[in-house]
Amino acid sequence: MRYSVTTVVVLLSLSGPLTAQARHAIDKGSVLVGGSAQISRTTSESGTSEATSTSVFVNPRALLFVAPRVAVGGDVSIGRISAGDVSSSSVGVGPAFRYYLRAAGATSLPYLGAAARISRASFEGPGSADGSETSRDVEGVLGIDWMISRQVGIAGEAFVAYFSRGSGPSRSATTFGVRFGIDAFFLR
């Protein structure tokens, strides 16, 4: 009899963790930790002139699912931009949001996302004034996580981002691009 009671107690104590593991990646309480890399081409305007540049960025992120399919958190943007002899490095931080369009349990999870950042960029090279400035960035994302396991997805995103820089004459840029990365979902 004592052996049976111990077995029942052990099985019941294990049932809680087993039930928690049966949840889906995009359920309330799950945490997404991921990142992506992008290469993009930008046309920017400063007054009456126009320039084209190439940029490379990495974007780590962490999001908490506050409701099924709805995640909020933050992301970081670290990048390098080159245009001819001029280059810049930047770091930005801000809030991020994702809404998954498909219910949990699917093998492909399309989503809409948005982020806003405050970034600091430093500039170097002939033909530019060496220095730094702050920008305000806003982006919209249409993406998909292809789930390669219950908790890991390969992410692909198309994005549009708007940057407004400097405190003097307004300078802005709009970027269209794609990026790919990996997202890990931690179930709670």
Please, could you describe this protein's structure?
The structure is a single chain. This protein is mainly beta. It has one domain (24-186): Beta Barrel (Porin). Helices cover 11% and strands 68% of the residues. The chain is built from one helix and eight strands; from the N terminus they run H-E-E-E-E-E-E-E-E. It has one helix at 2-21, and strands at residues 31-46, 49-67, 70-83, 86-100, 108-124, 131-147, 152-165, 171-186. The protein has an eight-stranded antiparallel β-barrel with strand order 1-2-3-4-5-6-7-8. A hairpin with a 2-residue loop joins strand 1 and strand 2. The longest helix has 20 residues, at 2-21. It is elongated and about 55 Å long. The protein starts with a helix and ends with a strand. The relative contact order is 0.20.
Explain briefly what this protein structure is.
By secondary structure, the chain is mainly β.
Q: Give the strand tally.
A: 8
Radius of gyration: 22 Å
Question: What global shape is seen?
Answer: elongated
Read across the widest sheet, the strand sequence of neighbours is 1-2-3-4-5-6-7-8
The low-confidence parts are 5-22
Q: Estimate percent helicity.
A: 10-25%
Averaged pLDDT:
83
Q: How do the SSEs run, as a string of H and E? A: HEEEEEEEE
Q: How far is it from the N-terminal to the C-terminal residue, by CA? A: 35 Å
CATH architecture: Beta Barrel
- Number of contiguous helices: 1
**How would a textbook summarize the main sheet?**
8 strands, antiparallel, barrel
Which CATH class applies here?
Mainly Beta
CATH topology-level fold name: Porin
Provide the β-strand percentage band: over 45%
Which structural class is indicated by helix and strand composition?
A: mainly beta
Please tell me the total number of domains. 1
